[in-house]
Amino acid sequence: MKAKNCCKTMEMELTGWKAIIYDITRKMEKLSGGERMKIVPNIEDLHMLIEEMDERIEYIRDNCKPETGMEDIQAERAKFNSSLSSLRMGAEEAMRGLGGGNFGG
Question: Could you give the percent of the chain with pLDDT greater than 70?
């Protein structure tokens, strides 16, 4: 079985999550001085998370060729699945830092 569809799905999901995290980061950076100072570590963590997602997306693009089989991407797929839970937790924590209601508007 070829892995091309799986690779594309991983790439699209990571790109979507990257956009969400980027939006949250931008909203956090727009907070007033006092509010922003409380969450500076969160902002820095989110920037590192965006960089990590960029690296994973690039890795998938570079290593998922038409001839790639599912067995060839098992390790990357396992990393991807575990990173999704970290992404969700990071996004939820960041949204709590924003007060929840300030996101998306």
Answer: 78
Task: Please work out, in degrees rounded to the nearest 5, the angle formed at the alpha carbon of residue 25 by the alpha carbons of 21 and 29.
Answer: 175
Domain ranges in the chain? Answer: 4-98
Query: Is the pTM higher than 0.85?
Result: no
Q: Quick one: tokens of 6?
A: 């799986």
Q: How far apart are CA 79 and CA 47, in angstroms?
A: 19
d(C-alpha 65, C-alpha 49), whole Å: 25
CA 89 centroid distance within chain: 11
DSSP for the chain, written as a single string: -B-HHHHHHHHHHHHHHHHHHHHHHHHHHTS-HHHHHHTHHHHHHHHHHHHHHHHHHHHHHHH--TT-BGGGGHHHHHHHHHHHHHHHHHHHHHHHHHTSTTTT-
Q: Is there a contact between 42 and 93 (Cβ–Cβ < 8 Å)? A: yes
